[in-house]
Amino acid sequence: MAWEIYRRVRRFWKRDAWDDERRRELDAYLEAETDKNIARGLAEREARFAAQRKLGNAALVREEIRQMNSLGFFETTWQDVRYGLRQLRLNPGFAIAAVLSLALGIGANTAIFQLLDAVRMRTLPVSHPEELLQVKIDQPHGRTGSFITRYPAMTYPQWEQIRANQQAFSGMLAWAPWPFNIAESGQVQNAQGIWVSGDFFNVLAVPPAMGRVFSSADDTPGCSNAGAVISYSFWQQHFGGDPNIIGKEIHVSHRAFPIIGVTPATFYGVEVGHTYQLALPLCAEPLVIPPSNGPGTILTSRDTWWLTLVGRLKPGWTAERASAQLRTISPQVFRETLPQDFEGSPKDIEHYLGYKLGAFPGATGNSDLRQNYQDPLTLLLSLAGLVLLIACGNLTNLLLARASARQKEMAVRMAIGASRGRLVQQLIAESLLLSVVGAAFGILLAEWLSAFLVSFLSTQKRPLFVDLPLDWRMFAFTAGLAITTCVLFGLAPALRATNASPGSTLKAAGRGNTAGRERFSLRRALVLAQVALSLVLVTGAILFARSLGRVMTVNAGFTQDRVVLADVDYTRANIAPPQRVAFQLDLLRRVRSIPGVVAAASNSIVPITGSSWNQNVLYDPLSTDSPGETNINEVSTDYFRTMNIALIAGRDFNEHDVVGSPMAAIVNQKFASKFFWGKNPIGNHFSLQKMSVKDNVSLEIIGLVADTKYDDMHTEPPPLVFLAMTQDPKQDSDASIMVRSSIPLDEITPAITGTLRGFNPDIEFSVLRTMVQQSLLGDRLMAMLSGFFGALAALLATVGVYGVISYMVARRGGEFGIRMALGASQGAIMRIVLREAGWVVGLGIVVGAALALAGAQQAKAMLYGITPYDPVTLVLSVAALAAIAFVASYIPALRASHLDPVTALREE
Amino acid sequence: MPKKGNAPMDGELLQGTLDLLILQTLALGPSHGHTIAYAIERRSDDVLQVEHGSLYPALHRLEDRGWIAGFWGTSENNRKARYYRLTPKGRKQLAAQTGRWEEIVRAIGRILRPAAE
Question: What ipTM does the predicted assembly reach?
Fold first, then answer.
């Protein structure tokens, strides 16, 4: 093999000398043959010609030999590239248009692919991520309790049990994301924190870049001297890369933690889409999160779901075997961790004990980004693909036009001995050059675009971090795109340009009235496809825009104007739990007294933030049979006035609803219609399952309010029960207070801060409207990008229609000249052109409408308040496309009708 | 129209046959392209018409494989000409290819005989 390569290369270098030798050898033949012919009696001239005929095409022979000595592909490719560059330089307008449209198409595809790849396929930045498995409940439906993190898979007691009993893993870790308030006082400043078990870094095999990482000794119950591990980027940004960082302190919820280590720059955590800044051991949880809701902490709570469990498989174990082992320990794990609340509720106990643990692939970590954006990004990638196809359509058309212009050139080259394959190769090389340059610009564009998308999806409280390296996956994708597009737009014109016998082409020499007919139909098919595809994209754009419009203007049932949420954490005021209700009422009183505050009220579940609380409804506190679930919110007096929610019947909570008085509930209309068949429910009683079992509480309905959206703008208002904050003695040491103001919010927030300064609280303000808007980021992403793609597609299709109709007008100039000479009016000529355009565009629209209807089905789950078959959308998009297509063909039609018959005929 | 590919000989000769014929011609002694072309025509009683130009790529290929060696000499008409002679490697190749050729001819003959009757 190596010898063969050596020989080839040697031949390559010597080929010029050899070619010279071949020339002399062939000359020698001619002389010998001429001599022979002369000897046979021919005249010298005749003799030489006869010799040449006998030998055949000497140039071809030499070329053939030269070919044997060349490095084939590389050499001809290099020639072709140089030739292609020359061609493009001669035609800069075409080159710029082609590169620009390819760069846009390839760039958009690459950017979306990068994001999709990062959130969907990329593995965690740790060694051997494929060995990592997530341990969770196989069918986790019907869990009850509090779900307090983004990934609430397990409780802490379950973690302890599983860790103690599992055999499949060489090590296990537990972690949970948590915002750590690192401000030393005043306004809350949240760092992206994670709670981690002691073995977290060891199981992941992440070594410290500085200092040390946690060991199991750092995570022992009641750890009072816990340290903190910080990420490399946090070290750089927050501490300016201080080389003496180890041993310095960082405050989390006003408690100092010494920094014991920094992790390497490549490690962003185990959550794709967010980078961790600060890690604390799980055992420090009681130090940071103040105990609430009675005895115990989150660490002992059996119904607080917040942890993600990951194990590293022992050598030789498989995921199936690990799952099997986890199933065998499941009964014990769940028996030992049964929530106390279930006493007396055999159905709940049975359900809980029936859970089975399983091991699931964990190499790609957790990602709410994946959950939220995988489907939208996949859809967007296909939309971007369609845009690229349309762009290819335009390039094909342009190249086809050039192909017919160059047919004569090709014919000449074939006549003097070029093979068709060689010419096709050369033309393809030209296309490849375009697509490679387009792809190069596309990558630049993609870098910018993906960074823009990441920042678009980031919110102030939840900055996104997506690792988007320029790696082989991205380059492979882009290279694949470039080659595919090149074949798509380059092959047909190349075949066309070379598909003619040189003789007839050269003879036809410009008289192309009828010869172009067949060629023209390919162009028409292309434009038809472009119109169809861009109709699909325009329809998608309008669908998503209308969907966004609906979800943004939908009546949530509460006001969003001038409402600000103040999260007041008064842990440092050290209020004992029994006094907290009174304290919160005092807080509210002070806030309400601020000039400009219209109304203020506290609530436990802030709407549209994704948090929710639900329980089973019981008609009889002693029964265990539930007619269904309801959502719950715990609010103070005036909540409905603050949020502008209509009180339809009954009364609001008041100062008489206190601990010990009969339990009151206010329900919404959905609740009334679901559980009381639409009758006025005031005065009726019901219970909530978990509360009822222990406390035997019966709730009296004292008020009926209008329906409101609960945790998500996209879902219909659910049944909802409001409980009185003043009747719940278990209060946390924080309050979330909704404030409606009559003055601008940036004036009211300093006033609130000032008024409450005496309690030394940590206050975090969020504007309700902003929170609602941020819950619609996905909708905005879809509307924005599909709008961008739709506009791009429409533009490309316009160019396509214009180009083909102009070409048609140019080709049929002679015909139009004759028609006009024979008396056809300008209007008649215009009608011919427009009819022609109308056919193509009309057919394209029909095909496109069918495709759009089929494609819209894919978007169904991402649409709000609008069906995929929305007739208004379809009418709008058809009208829009028809209008631009009309304009695009009207201009060439106008040009055709103003042709001077004499000039047109002469040009012919 | 240009000739597509390299048709080595007029008539439909099996690929590689031209190589064999050249080797056989050179087995009788060194000669140059012109003589080789005529020798093949003459010795086949003009049945095999070689397009003389197509001989040269074949010569080049054989030389590259080391079966024949080229050198410049003076022709019978006192002109410079590039002569070729068989190398020992080429002689072995000739024997092998001749054997194979005869085998093929016999095989084809066996197939055709019944049809000829």
Answer: 0.79
